[in-house]
Amino acid sequence: MLSTLIDLALKYKLLVIALFLTVMALGFRAYEHIPIDAFPDITPKQVVIYTESPGNSAEDIEKLITYPLESAISGMAGVKQILSNSFFGLSYVSVFFEDDMDIYFLRQLMSERLASVDIPQGWGKPTLGPNTTGLGQVFWYEIKDNTHTYSLRQLRQMQDYIVTPLFKSVSGVEEVIGWGGYEKQYNVLIDTNKLQDINITYEDIVNALQRSNKAAGGQYLEFNREQYLIRGAGLYKSLDDIRHTVIKSADGHAVTIQDIATVEEGSAPRFGAISIDGNESVMGMVLQRTATNAAKVVASIKAKIETVNTALPEGVATGIRTGDRMTVSVPAAGLTEQGTVAEIAP
Q1: pLDDT tens digits, the chain, 346 residues: what are they?
Q2: Where are the domains of the chain?
Q3: Where are the alpha helices (DSSP H) in the chain?
Q4: Dihedral sign, CA of 117, 271, 47, 160?
Q5: Rounded CA gap, 304 and 172, in Å?
């Protein structure tokens, strides 16, 4: 048998050489395209559902949000396991599927199923979490103010409105999450004694604010053979716009927000803070999309940093955090967690 094989190889030398070159070319091509990842993703297929319900207790959220979601999802094809947690103001449901199912098909099925879940009005809307896994935390950074002129609230605004959109434009990035600082909001501090005097309820105030902060289109108007577009620009642009919002009219007098409340800039209530080397800071975390290469995603993010720093005010920049000690403090629960921040290097 071996002698016959050698005879055939010698007889058809050109064919053997061509076959050898073809195998070598295919092997080199496979070598160039083989996926190499710093941390291969071995997590199962999963879809996470978040439902924010501010101010509601964990017991009520479990009964009115988490349980209905679990009941609706349990009958889906390919479901292996459902894990859930109900916290103060938040419902978290994680659904694990069979490994051979397509993640995008699963998310589509999940979106269709969530539309049929009956959640009480005002208790929040279930939302699919980012298309990532437990190994998707590939890049950490800090918003550093080298001039020490900006407050934590201003740094958080830079994180939310400048840094996050730029990093989310990078190929392979699924989500950018900001931590620390203070989230800006506008506070309407109501004087309850004045409400009783003019017979106005909290619902009247909320409806007036929602009704006034809107923009609308009004088609167009033809005049002298020209077309003029009509639009209603009613969005708030300043604190005075909020103060002058009319709640109702009584006895020929318009009752406005400033008659019964004080309007000011403030910060949303927070449950904790983040500090680096003992100093409170603002940080961000980049999550990579499922089935993408972590090393390539990190390399693309690093190439984007120069653009991000150019868009930030002078003296403010994004700093990469690698192997640093980070402290997350949650005063409401009396907990403090410490960990090492690691970056996946390409």
Answers
A1: 778 888 777 778 888 888 889 999 999 888 887 766 666 777 888 999 999 998 899 999 999 999 999 999 988 888 999 999 999 999 999 999 998 889 999 999 999 999 889 899 889 999 999 999 878 888 999 999 999 999 999 999 999 999 999 999 999 999 999 989 999 999 999 998 888 878 888 999 999 999 999 888 888 888 888 898 888 888 999 999 999 999 988 777 899 999 999 999 999 888 788 888 888 999 999 999 988 888 889 999 999 999 999 999 999 999 888 654 444 455 443 344 444 333 333 3
A2: 45-128, 137-183+269-341, 185-265
A3: 2-11, 13-33, 58-61, 67-73, 103-114, 152-158, 164-168, 192-198, 202-212, 239-243, 257-260, 294-311
A4: positive
A5: 13
CATH architecture of the domain 185-265 equals 2-Layer Sandwich (3.30)
Residue pointed to by tokens 């010698």: 10
Do the beta carbons of residue 304 and residue 150 sit within 8 Å?
no
3-class SS of residue 203: helix
